[in-house]
Design goal:
The protein has 222 residues and is of the alpha+beta class. It has a single domain, classed as PK beta-barrel domain-like (M1 Pyruvate Kinase, Domain 3, Beta Barrel), CATH 2.40.33. It is 23% helix and 25% strand. The strands form 3 sheets. An 8-stranded mixed β-sheet has the order 4-1-7-6-10-9-8-12. A two-stranded antiparallel ribbon has the order 2-3. A two-stranded antiparallel sheet has the order 5-11. Helix 1 links the parallel strand 6 and strand 7. It is globular and about 45 Å long. It starts with a strand and ends with a helix.
């Protein structure tokens, strides 16, 4: 398992963002590095956990619980075959394009060591948005991406440090539950009846995902 590509974005104009200045950092491009990865601060204040990476719409993106976004190259390859077009590393707005790692099958709370020092913890799946659809230029993309339920993973930074393209990725902790990124994503989108199950992930779960599950349980029971 390795970090195939390290990707960062710069603010670019877009007609598909809610940012007041009409810019987005979703168009991420590969860089060799090394780049420092560190917790950026609370959502709404902190942006990306990757040095030099732009997060423009901090109301919905960035912050400690989604400091880094990872996508498996294998998932990009499947979408290439389905869409009939090339998808370069970083095309989904991911900071980390991995190889040999089942990103959407990772457990919430699973921890990865990248390179010598950096440790990241899986918090949730990525919810597709209008900006993502506009960036990709695929009609109905939000619905198609949601139906696939392979959203890639948001991660928080447990141990900061530097990473570069080609670094090894090692799973150093797997929690004792069965809540994967894919299950959490389905629960939050198309299969709300699964929401009580995601609470088994405990404090590792993204606070917004936990709050959604708790509201469901309060209204419908477990």
């Amino acid at each position: 398992m390795k970090l195939l590509s390290l990707n960062v974005g710069r603010p670019r104009a877009s007609d598909h963002t809610s940012h007041p200045q009409g810019v987005t950092g979703i168009d991420k491009r590969p860089v060799e590095g090394p780049l420092r990865i560190a917790a950026p601060g609370p959502k709404g204040i902190g942006a990306s956990g990757v040095a030099g990476d732009a997060v423009c719409e901090t109301r919905h993106h960035g912050g400690d619980d989604q400091a880094v976004y990872a996508v498996a190259r294998e998932d990009l390859d499947e979408w290439e075959r389905e869409l009939g077009r090339p998808l370069r590393n970083g095309m989904f707005g991911e900071n980390l394009t991995t190889e040999g790692l089942d990103v959407s099958g990772a457990l919430i709370g699973e921890r990865w060591r990248i390179g010598a020092d950096v440790i990241l913890e899986v918090t949730s799946g990525r919810i597709p948005c209008r900006t993502f659809q506009g960036h990709l230029g695929e009609p109905g993309w939000v619905k198609r991406f949601t139906h696939r339920a392979a959203p890639g993973a948001y991660l928080r930074v447990v141990v900061p440090g530097e990473v570069r393209a080609g670094d090894s990725v090692e799973i150093v902790h797997r929690p004792d539950h069965d809540v994967t990124v894919a299950l959490q994503f389905r629960a939050g989108t198309t299969e709300r009846e699964l929401l009580p199950r995601v609470l088994a992930a405990g404090d590792a779960l993204h606070p917004e995902a936990r709050a959604q599950a708790e509201r469901y349980v309060a209204q419908h029971g477990s």
